[in-house]
Prior knowledge:
The chain is α/β, with parallel strands linked by helices. It has one domain (2-237): Rossmann fold, CATH 3.40.50. It is built from eight helices and ten strands. The strands form two sheets. A seven-stranded parallel β-sheet has the order 1-10-9-6-2-3-5. A three-stranded antiparallel β-sheet has the order 4-8-7, with helices on one face. Helix 7 links the parallel strand 9 and strand 10. The longest helix has 18 residues, at 9-26. Bound molecules: 2-amino-2-deoxy-6-O-phosphono-alpha-D-glucopyranose (GLP).
Amino acid sequence: MKLLVVKNYDEMSKVAAKELAEVISKKPESILGLATGGTPVGMYKELIDMHKNEELDFSKVTTVNLDEYVGLSGEHDQSYRYFMDSNLFNHVNIRKEYTYVPNGLAEDMHQECVNYDKRIEELGGIDVQVLGIGSNGHIGFNEPSDTLSLGTHVTDLAESTIEANSRYFASKEEVPTKALTMGLGAIMKAKKILLMVSGESKAEIMDKVVNGKITTQVPASFLQMHKDVVLIIDEDAARKIK
Length: 242
Ligand code: GLP
């Protein structure tokens, strides 16, 4: 794992955007694995700026997102489809039909999961996967558990995740209790992983992610086994890493 400790959120966003832009410039038809949450918002802003000022070209890019809430349509302002459209896709020259987010309203969830994995495979896998992290060590919505799934699956959200994500909803009761998420398989198969981490609330878990034993109770600890992970972390989040 390559560690880049940066000053703050803004610097993390700039460094991550640069890394991603480099991948796109080298391979314009890149398959990008994308993430939602507060962490990557600044990076998406930087990418939009690069598109507007430096002509970073998304015209051949394909994206696959990590996850989506079960029960929310793409028009719901807390759905991850809506998040991606409003934070990135609507502002760059990407082909919308080549931006994939799991369908939270699919009638047959099992089939939706099978199709999602099949699509990733048919695309030839992910060139670079962007990840944030939950303060309990989850990636995507792969929550701490006795077992982890390789494939895309429906999962119950941890109580702490519902609590953490309730800040984006009008009330805690409105937070969906289930989500569709890519499994550890597709994430670990990505050629490169950019893990972005910012803020005090992530400091506790980050020592376990970087130095702890690899355990399903800390899903992000599996990233220790990936050969090309760049961890871009700000000083507040890095404070407890030994
Ligand atoms: C969410 C998402 C994750 C994200 C994490 C942290 O629940 N499913 O992909 O990395 O929680 O979110 P934030 O960046 O807002 O702290």
